[in-house]
């Protein structure tokens, strides 16, 4: 991978002289002990610019040869989690000594940028097919249909939360390619658990879940908070309720309760929190809460409720859109 030694001016002139007397590139290469491609490059340069001298350059010559660029680009394409240190070591073993910033600049010129890996649900083929089916079925739904949906979910909010990140090399608009994401599973535990809902018209009710939630508790939450939310949000007749496929939500008793209450439920593909705009609303809430810096659980709950109520209806409307 080391860069080849530059030919002397005398050697370059000799190549041109031999070419002018009718010798082939192969013959010149054999006579001077050079590769045919090297001879050809000198001759083409002479024909184009009428000189074999080095032409003015826009800046310092590249530290990494074209072959080295191809190697590191191929490496990060196969494994986007390759670190700059790994690439520095790979090039050093091949004879090229570079720094980490040089690696970054080189890959950036190839359209690759170091980004935090997105966290996405761990999808099996059955999940992929269900998501695709959902997207096709609702592809042409008018805006009015989505504006008449109440979106719901649970989330955890930590008092002093820390989010670990992993960086990957990727091209623009490739953040959700499986190689560039970190699979996650649902709820890991936390300081407080919340249930909330919202529609395009604004946030609905938000409550703290103080015990481990089961099916009976979930039905109680819906009984006490879903209809009041729909009423406060002035939902149109025939509004639709959305929740995911958590076992508490899909339990037979819960389905029967929803049926008896005549709630219309949006059929939802498993492992698809990213399709639910409430995930973005949770993010909005967590950013607002973090800025308030609550110091204890009581304050955390109070601030969550205050900031949820402050979220403008326009934010909710834009998320649904």
UniProtKB/TrEMBL annotation:
GO terms for molecular function: DNA binding. Residues 149-300 form the Tc1-like transposase DDE domain. It comes from the Eukaryota. InterPro entries: Homeodomain-like_sf, HTH_SB, RNaseH_sf, Tc1-like_DDE_dom, Transpos_IS630-like, Transposase_5, Transposase_Tc1-like, WH-like_DNA-bd_sf. GO terms for biological process: DNA integration; DNA transposition. Residues 1-52 form the Sleeping Beauty transposase HTH domain. Residues 71-140 form the Transposase Tc1-like domain. PANTHER family: SI:DKEY-77F5.3 (PTHR23022:SF135), TRANSPOSABLE ELEMENT-RELATED (PTHR23022). This is Transposase Tc1-like domain-containing protein. It comes from Hucho hucho (huchen). The lineage of its organism: Eukaryota, Metazoa, Chordata, Craniata, Vertebrata.
